[in-house]
């Protein structure tokens, strides 16, 4: 860096300065994602510096981080938007400053699609559909008819919460599974809030007639498992549980028989992200959305897969 270079930085030869406005540190997924991005930037000669801001799941802090990146005239801004709405103004400011924005992980509402270059991350609706397909397969033969479901949603208004919910119920409705959504609340993707919401579910509805808990991430599922055990029930047996992410702790709970299905969400995309950042800085054509590859795991696979987990 340095010098009184009046260009836009792209292709200047001395490496790109990248600003990354990360969501927070709410989950094992997020920590692994931050580490992956930071390690990839450090190892990459094409990147001079990664300015990293942890926004503590607070949109105001993220907007402030993006504004600071604009002031600092970074080459590329990477944003993992905590929620989908409310980005128009700051994205427009980045566009006016001529700084391209790459979304990592989470997306923004369709109305803002022209204000970012590309998104690299998971297909959250597809993750929800995978969870829904397992629920249909598991409960289609349910002798008592209606499958009674509790849902622990991720952060209200976030792309993964919106889309994991939509994809799941899309499949249940399409397949005609008779179900009742007994309750659905946000646990903000954290273990503490997941546990607290599950305690409220248990107080309000009991657990005797409940078939399935669908938790939008590992932490909320693991928090709920504690609440279920403290209430004297056996998670994974008295109530079936689906989680999304697939951390080591999530798989361990699966090996212990405490949950039944894991939909993988892959946070380790740092190297892929650096490639996208460089392409965008060079003004190359990129796809509007690049999905990260992900699988699903049932109880027969938990033990063999546990040693492979990277976070
Ligand atoms: O599933 C969850 C994290 O946005 C895909 O955020 C990410 C989600 C992930 O808090 O654990």
UniProtKB/TrEMBL annotation:
Residues 19-285 form the Periplasmic binding protein domain. Its main location: other. It holds the Pfam family Peripla_BP_4. GO terms for molecular function: carbohydrate binding. Signal peptide: none annotated. GO terms for cellular component: cell envelope. InterPro entries: Peripla_BP_I (IPR028082), SBP_2_dom (IPR025997). Belongs to the bacterial solute-binding protein 2 family. This is Substrate-binding domain-containing protein. The lineage of its organism: Bacteria, Bacillati, Actinomycetota, Actinomycetes, Glycomycetales.
């Amino acid at each position: 860096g340095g010098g009184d270079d009046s260009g836009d930085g792209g292709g200047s030869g001395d490496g790109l300065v990248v600003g990354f406005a990360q969501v927070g540190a709410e989950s094992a997924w997020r920590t692994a994602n931050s580490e992956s991005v930071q390690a990839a930037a450090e190892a990459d000669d094409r990147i001079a510096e990664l300015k990293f801001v942890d926004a503590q799941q607070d949109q105001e802090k993220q907007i402030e981080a993006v504004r600071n990146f604009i002031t600092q005239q970074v080459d590329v801004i990477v944003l993992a938007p905590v929620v989908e709405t409310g980005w128009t103004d700051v994205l427009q400011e980045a566009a006016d400053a001529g700084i391209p924005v790459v979304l990592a992980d989470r997306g923004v509402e369709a109305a803002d699609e022209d204000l970012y270059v590309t998104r690299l991350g998971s297909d959250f609706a597809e993750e929800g559909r995978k969870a829904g397909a397992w629920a249909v397969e598991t409960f289609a033969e349910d002798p008592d008819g209606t499958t009674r479901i509790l849902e622990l949603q991720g952060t209200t208004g976030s792309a993964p919460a919106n889309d994991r919910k939509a994809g799941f119920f899309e499949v249940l409705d399409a397949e005609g599974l008779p179900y009742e959504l007994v309750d659905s609340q946000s646990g903000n993707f954290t273990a503490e809030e997941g546990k607290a919401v599950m305690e409220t579910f248990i107080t309000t509805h009991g657990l005797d007639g409940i078939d399935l808990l669908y938790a939008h991430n590992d932490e909320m599922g693991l928090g709920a498992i504690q609440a279920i055990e403290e209430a004297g029930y056996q998670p994974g047996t008295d109530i079936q549980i689906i989680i999304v992410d697939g951390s080591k702790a999530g798989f361990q709970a699966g090996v212990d028989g405490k949950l039944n299905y894991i939909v993988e969400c892959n946070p380790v995309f740092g190297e892929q992200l650096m490639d996208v950042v460089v392409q965008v800085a060079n003004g190359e054509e990129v796809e509007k959305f690049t999905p990260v590859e992900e699988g699903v795991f049932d109880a027969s696979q938990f033990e063999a897969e546990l040693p492979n987990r990277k976070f």
